Amino acid sequence: MRRIGVLTSGGDAPGMNAAIRAVVRAGIYNNIQVMGIARGYAGLINGEIKEMDLASVGDIIHRGGTILKTARCEEFKTDAGREKALNVLEVFGIDGLVVIGGDGSFMGAQKLSHAGIKTIGIPGTIDNDLSYTDYTIGFDTAVNTVLDAVSKIRDTSTSHERISIIEVMGRHCGDIALYAGLAGGAESVLVPEEEFDIDDICKKLIQGKARRKLHHIIMLAEGTGDALELKKEIFNKTGIEARVTVLGYIQRGGSPTAFDRILASRMGARAVELLMEEKSGRVIGIKKNELIDMDIDEALSANREFHKEMYELTKILSI
């Protein structure tokens, strides 16, 4: 393994820069030339590739986003687009590729692996929606970003004795809402994995008002339903006015937590090790705080298990 490439693809996540840094420095330590590919698969097709050295990844471990930038690429989903990418890899003499991203990025890595390119995937997505690993890079930071917002919203919500609906990211996976809801003391946590009863929510609101509760936080994952519709339903049933806060892209930005920096560093270095071992079509994860690697086909087909016990705990502690 003489020369490897690294790219970030899909939605950005805090900790991606720490992973890039680890790949570059671990590669150089092992006398491997590392090429940075800008703008994901689109940059790969267009040949946006340059050599990275120690200085190019200096002072980035604490930065959010990705210095390599990221982009969606419809062209890469076509046979012709992937053929262009393979030609570019050959022209630049890249022997192996590290892909940092979510399930869509991994599908691209899977295609390249099947075409004969040695590829290793690192999970970088705030949604924590990759089933084979306990945590993805960026998830912990996103949860802490939400928690910070909850604390601020609770202050004003308490001052005005209001109900607050806080919508967080998570179209198919409710982990951000679940973890932030539990840690932030939300009275209701609504996730796409579990159906909810609007009457149960309204009952909690009415009971809270009766005992002079000063605030009420409803944590809503975006894939569960529309926050404004929920607000309307609550008002129609109870006459209680709620305020909606949609956190949006604020959850993707910011300096990564210590957990995400360490996880990204460990995974980036491990990706280089796997390429040196001539491994391909593997993705790195973490289980019980130990790094694992798994066949990418197996990882993408793994069934996701929702943390039902934690979800039930949010109900118990919100009474």
Automatic annotation (TrEMBL):
<feature type="binding site">
    <location>
        <begin position="72"/>
        <end position="73"/>
    </location>
    <ligand>
        <name>ATP</name>
    </ligand>
</feature>
<feature type="binding site" description="in other chain">
    <location>
        <begin position="249"/>
        <end position="252"/>
    </location>
    <ligand>
        <name>substrate</name>
    </ligand>
</feature>
<dbReference type="InterPro" id="IPR000023">
    <property type="entry name" value="Phosphofructokinase_dom"/>
</dbReference>
<comment type="pathway">
    <text>Carbohydrate degradation; glycolysis; D-glyceraldehyde 3-phosphate and glycerone phosphate from D-glucose: step 3/4.</text>
</comment>
<feature type="binding site" description="in other chain">
    <location>
        <begin position="125"/>
        <end position="127"/>
    </location>
    <ligand>
        <name>substrate</name>
    </ligand>
</feature>
<feature type="binding site">
    <location>
        <position position="162"/>
    </location>
    <ligand>
        <name>substrate</name>
    </ligand>
</feature>
<dbReference type="GO" id="GO:0003872">
    <property type="term" value="F:6-phosphofructokinase activity"/>
</dbReference>
<keyword id="KW-0021">Allosteric enzyme</keyword>
<keyword id="KW-0418">Kinase</keyword>
<feature type="binding site">
    <location>
        <begin position="102"/>
        <end position="105"/>
    </location>
    <ligand>
        <name>ATP</name>
    </ligand>
</feature>
<feature type="binding site">
    <location>
        <position position="103"/>
    </location>
    <ligand>
        <name>Mg(2+)</name>
    </ligand>
</feature>
<feature type="binding site" description="in other chain">
    <location>
        <position position="211"/>
    </location>
    <ligand>
        <name>ADP</name>
    </ligand>
</feature>
<comment type="function">
    <text>Catalyzes the phosphorylation of D-fructose 6-phosphate to fructose 1,6-bisphosphate by ATP, the first committing step of glycolysis.</text>
</comment>
<keyword id="KW-0963">Cytoplasm</keyword>
<feature type="binding site">
    <location>
        <position position="11"/>
    </location>
    <ligand>
        <name>ATP</name>
    </ligand>
</feature>
<comment type="similarity">
    <text>Belongs to the phosphofructokinase type A (PFKA) family. ATP-dependent PFK group I subfamily. Prokaryotic clade 'B1' sub-subfamily.</text>
</comment>
<keyword id="KW-0324">Glycolysis</keyword>
<protein>
    <recommendedName>
        <fullName>ATP-dependent 6-phosphofructokinase</fullName>
        <ecNumber>2.7.1.11</ecNumber>
    </recommendedName>
</protein>
<feature type="binding site" description="in other chain">
    <location>
        <position position="154"/>
    </location>
    <ligand>
        <name>ADP</name>
    </ligand>
</feature>
<keyword id="KW-0808">Transferase</keyword>
<keyword id="KW-0479">Metal-binding</keyword>
<feature type="binding site">
    <location>
        <begin position="21"/>
        <end position="25"/>
    </location>
    <ligand>
        <name>ADP</name>
    </ligand>
</feature>
<feature type="binding site" description="in other chain">
    <location>
        <begin position="213"/>
        <end position="215"/>
    </location>
    <ligand>
        <name>ADP</name>
    </ligand>
</feature>
<feature type="binding site" description="in other chain">
    <location>
        <begin position="185"/>
        <end position="187"/>
    </location>
    <ligand>
        <name>ADP</name>
    </ligand>
</feature>
<dbReference type="InterPro" id="IPR012003">
    <property type="entry name" value="ATP_PFK_prok-type"/>
</dbReference>
<feature type="binding site" description="in other chain">
    <location>
        <begin position="169"/>
        <end position="171"/>
    </location>
    <ligand>
        <name>substrate</name>
    </ligand>
</feature>
<dbReference type="InterPro" id="IPR012828">
    <property type="entry name" value="PFKA_ATP_prok"/>
</dbReference>
<feature type="domain" description="Phosphofructokinase">
    <location>
        <begin position="3"/>
        <end position="275"/>
    </location>
</feature>
<keyword id="KW-0460">Magnesium</keyword>
<dbReference type="Pfam" id="PF00365">
    <property type="entry name" value="PFK"/>
</dbReference>
<feature type="active site" description="Proton acceptor">
    <location>
        <position position="127"/>
    </location>
</feature>
<feature type="binding site">
    <location>
        <position position="243"/>
    </location>
    <ligand>
        <name>substrate</name>
    </ligand>
</feature>
<feature type="binding site" description="in other chain">
    <location>
        <position position="222"/>
    </location>
    <ligand>
        <name>substrate</name>
    </ligand>
</feature>
<keyword id="KW-0067">ATP-binding</keyword>
<keyword id="KW-0547">Nucleotide-binding</keyword>
<comment type="subunit">
    <text>Homotetramer.</text>
</comment>
